[in-house]
Amino acid sequence: MSASETQERPSNTDHRVRGTVRAYWIAQGGEFLRHHFEAETRTRLEQAFSSDLNAALTGRSMSDWIPRSHLVELLEATAKARRGSEAFTDLVAFGEFIEQRATNRFTDLLTKILTPELLLRKLPLFWRRDHGLPGACVVDISAPGSARFHLEDVADFPHIAPVWLGWVRASLDAVHARSVSVKQSGYGATTPSPARVEFEVSWS
Amino acid sequence: MTTNDELEQVRERVAEALLLLSSVEFGDTSVQLRVDVKSRHPLEAAFNSINELIMAFAAENEQSNAFRRELEGHLEVIEKQRAAIQELSTPIIELWEGVLCLPVVGVLDTVRSTEMTGVLLQAIVDQKARYAIIDITGIEVMDTRTVDHFMRMARAVRLLGAECALTGINPHIAQTVVQMGLDLTDIVTHRSLRDALSYYVSAHS
Known about the structure:
The complex is a heterodimer of chains A (about 200) and B (about 200).
Chain A: H1 3-6, E1 20-22, H2 23-36, H3 39-47, H4 51-56, E2 65-67, H5 68-82, H6 84-101, H7 105-113, H8 116-121, H9 123-130, E3 136-143, E4 146-152, H10 160-174, E5 181-185, E6 196-202
Antiparallel strand pairs in A: 1-2, 3-4, 4-6, 5-6
Helix pairs in contact in A: 2-5, 2-6, 5-6, 6-10
Chain B: H1 3-26, H2 42-89, E1 93-96, E2 99-106, H3 110-126, E3 131-139, H4 144-159, E4 163-167, H5 171-179, E5 188-190, H6 193-204
Parallel strand pairs in B: 2-3, 3-4, 4-5
Antiparallel strand pairs in B: 1-2
Helix pairs in contact in B: 3-4
């Protein structure tokens, strides 16, 4: 390791990233990297973490609102880990992991009474609970078996589209929706942070 | 409105309540349920009660945080005082060039003895001292364990190539040492600090 690599990494919080996110997204995101990637990749990613992110990964109350830039740093690390089509899969897995791990007794109760239609109608509340502003999740149509919704004002929230896709898919699985399909349009390797992302969901 | 619609509406409101309570369980007590004050639906009364509970929980939480902060403040003060006491309880004084003095006051237990030995040895190395005087004028009790601490201290000093002397033994302690059959022959003793210093100066002049 060169001398420059051993120095304390400077804070590289991206001040272009506005907004906040719940601390449990960061804590569970760090856990996801440890859980999802092989040791070598994981070590490489963790060594590149900024000092701000390292501080955010420890010692926070679950419900604290913390700068969204920390989550963006985790998402960018995930996207760069294996690149290519695997990056999309990894980001979807990130969202699924958060949905499965950031739970408590009330979210468990919630999954017992939610139907897929009701879950999708409540997506804006879930978004507000976890991500706040800027950005919003807007449900366009929620009917039995299908729904359309979109994320808006998320231009400075790169990679949130596949993560939200994974989160929604895992949520639908949790409320026993079958043959779930979630498709998005707007996000891609060359457009990681579109202002608006459309989603189409179907299930049986 | 049909029964099914009503049921769906109740389900929706309960889902909202659970979603909000999940935030409360994560630790966010700033949230409140939307309540329709005009409605006479039993759920609205229940939601009112939940809001009151959240407010009460928030107040308790705030109080508990205030207590914790206060306690942390006290612990910080105690820690600073402990460090100050430790520093004061192990003062190393340079009496003469190459001569250090460690005045021992109070009770000498194993922890304190270990700390003192460490500080004394470090001072001998740092200041290139040749002679260390342990003055026990202020010591309260002398028993076999205390004597053992001094013997160990003296042996450690000698290992660094310095000499060690014990001064300030008062008549009461001298009597105790004899009555208990404690062996202090391995350590040089002088009546007072002044005697020990005079001895060193004359021996090295």
